[in-house]
Amino acid sequence: MAGPWVMVRAQTTSPATPKTTLAQKLSNFVSPRGGVDPAEAPALQPPAAGYSFPQKQTLTYAVDWRVFTAGVAVFKLEQVGPVTKVSATADTVGATNMIYQVVDRFQSSFNTQTGCSVGFSKQTQEGRRKVSSDLIFQPPAAAGQLGKQVQVERNLVKGTVKQLEAPIPACVTDSLSGIFYVGSQRLIPGGDIKLPLADAMRTVAVTMRVEAHEEVKTPAGTFQTIRVQPTADAGVVKNRGTITIWYTDDPRHLPVQIRAKLFWGTITFHLQSVT
Asked: In which domain, by residue range, is 27 found?
């Protein structure tokens, strides 16, 4: 799930390995090539009865790579009518900037009643590479039909534009909205949540396994949490690593910690503040 949903970059230690974003690496883990037939993808369930998305909220995270502080990530949510808009920024800091500077911006929006994503955009600057991408989710023309995702990607250095289209289920989530959509569900240890994720012109069937209660300490404080681990239902994901998200064990279901353990190292997002 878009990594799933981790918006920061890191460079591997091998000089032979191309510089790849963490979001891309995580997407490869949970989004196998080809995905699933959109007509066979699991249905996206609406938010649980009684759950309310925040009217306005900012979550700030310190991002660690191995033993280093690699960056800062900020997520902002704001309700505008029936839609919640989410924006995220990810910036490298300190010594990481000297290795490979990254400045990324992400935006998504979803319907607060249905959970269905409306669209996802990103602007990435990685070294000399600058790309802007807009992904729009179009609903089906009639009941029982498939929707469509349309992606327009602009290379701001080369001045090129590329447009792609692909079918999707009538209702999907995206790699940024999905973090908060999962928080709107009932998180009961031993259960799971199945969802369709639109990612890179594919539909990916993702299972969020609700594992256990756990106490987590972050710069923002100590939280009683529920540990959730996403996996993909399709393709081979074994031996690619693990991704874990800790949500507060309260009605808010705040994502207070996100960790990705991959073959080249571990990235952890620690909640610093909530405003």
From this structure: 2-274
Domains in the chain, number: 1
Q: Kindly give, in sequence order, each residue whose CB lies less than 8 Å from that of residue 245, ignoring residues fewer than 6 positions away.
A: 5, 179, 182, 227, 228, 229, 230, 255, 257, 258
Tell me the pLDDT tens digit for each residue of 150-164: 999 999 889 999 999
Q: Mapping DSSP to helix (H, G, I), strand (E, B) and coil, where does residue 164 land?
A: strand
Place of tokens 């710069």: 219
| Dist. CA 26–CA 4, nearest whole Å | 6
Three-state DSSP class for residue 226: strand
Going by pLDDT thresholds of 50, 70 and 90, the confidence category of residue 273 is very high
pTM for this prediction = 0.83
Give the integer Cα–Cα distance in Å for 262 and 264: 6
CA 174-241-47 angle, to 5 degrees, is: 30
**For residues 75 and 87, is the Cβ–Cβ distance under 8 A?**
yes
